[in-house]
Amino acid sequence: MKQTTNSILMIRPVAFRMNEQTAVNNYYQKVLDGLLPATVNAKAQQEFDAFVEKLTAVGVDVTVVDDTLNPDTPDSIFPNNWISFHENGDVALYPMFAENRRQERREEILDLLEEKGFVIHNIIDYTSAEEDGFFLEGTGSLLLDRANAKAYCALSPRADEELFIEFCEDFDYAPVIFEAFQTVDSERKLIYHTNVMMCLGETFAVICSDCIDDKKERKMVLDNLKENGKEIILITEAQMNNFAGNMLEIRGANDKRYLVMSAAAHQSLTSKQIEQLEKHAEILSSSLDTIEACGGGSARCMMAEIFLPRN
């Protein structure tokens, strides 16, 4: 199984804003005072377009789908939470915590990918769990080490343990389960998505291990990464708050590896960390300030990797 892909799906926003329904447990979201919703969306579109341009310039195959005004989906820019695409032609659809995010799941996106020559064999749909109040938000909640058939998950209101284990059984992954915390108003609170505190590359892992308060769990997670020969690059909680954990390794032209992150994440790294990362992949960063502030997500969340076979 490949760990990285050259193909990604991105959704261009039309009504992006801070989503009041996700702010209850996404502590990264901020209200940008004095900005009209139309201004916020225009800024988000500019950041989105510049980001896509940088990706396509290095040979990444980006499928951009425009969001629609109806239904109202302020977070549609983060498709990796509702869908994942797998090498055997399987597609997984995930149950979402915020009701207005459930509307992001659009069947025509699958039709569009098939028109582009991607092959879909099977849809595995976990969304009925929403009715019972259980959630698992795609590759936000679960980090897949595809090559080593391991899945990492920091449990939270948006990542249910039983659902995660069900996913692992369906897709043949060994589960690595832990809890990760961040300090909010001097209280330790669960981090809403695993992919803000951790990134898995082919030959490396970026992780804020300080977030794993339980020492046994921390050791278990780090041991799992070491076991698979990954160089571990530790980041601080302050760097994580600048989205330094929310990175994704993808492939450009001639299979060249790129580590994609936001400008804020890039700027938060030390020269030593940058040196460590550049041994594995070239860094590609883009300014996502508005998207990060209002959406509480960053570069990784904006890219749904497509591993599907092609005609």
Sequence of strands across the biggest β-sheet: 2-1-17
- Based on CA atoms alone, the radius of gyration comes out at 18 Å
Structural domain count = 1
- Total helices: the number is 9
* Mean of all residue-level pLDDT scores: 92
Beta-strand percent range: 15-25%
Pfam family, one: DDAH_eukar
Organism: Flavobacterium limicola
Protein name: Amidinotransferase
InterPro entries: Amdntrnsf_FN0238
What attributes does this structure have?
single chain; about 300 residues; alpha/beta; L-arginine/glycine Amidinotransferase, Chain A; three-stranded mixed sheet; 9 helices
Account of the protein in words:
The chain is globular and about 45 Å long. The chain has a 3-stranded mixed β-sheet with strand order 2-1-17, covered by helices on one side. A 3-stranded mixed β-sheet has the order 3-4-5, with no helix packed on it. The chain starts with 6 loop residues before the first strand and ends in a 6-residue tail after the last strand. With 311 residues, it is α/β, with parallel strands linked by helices. The mean pLDDT is 92. The protein has one domain: L-arginine/glycine Amidinotransferase, Chain A (5-stranded Propeller), CATH 3.75.10. It contains 9 helices and 17 strands. Helices cover 27% and strands 23% of the residues. The longest helix has 21 residues, at 37-57. It has helices at residues 37-57, 107-115, 138-141, 161-171, 215-227, 237-241, 263-268, 271-278, 289-295; strands spanning 7-12, 61-66, 83-85, 90-93, 122-125, 142-145, 150-154, 174-178, 181-184, 187-190, 198-200, 204-207, 231-234, 248-251, 257-262, 282-286, 304-305.
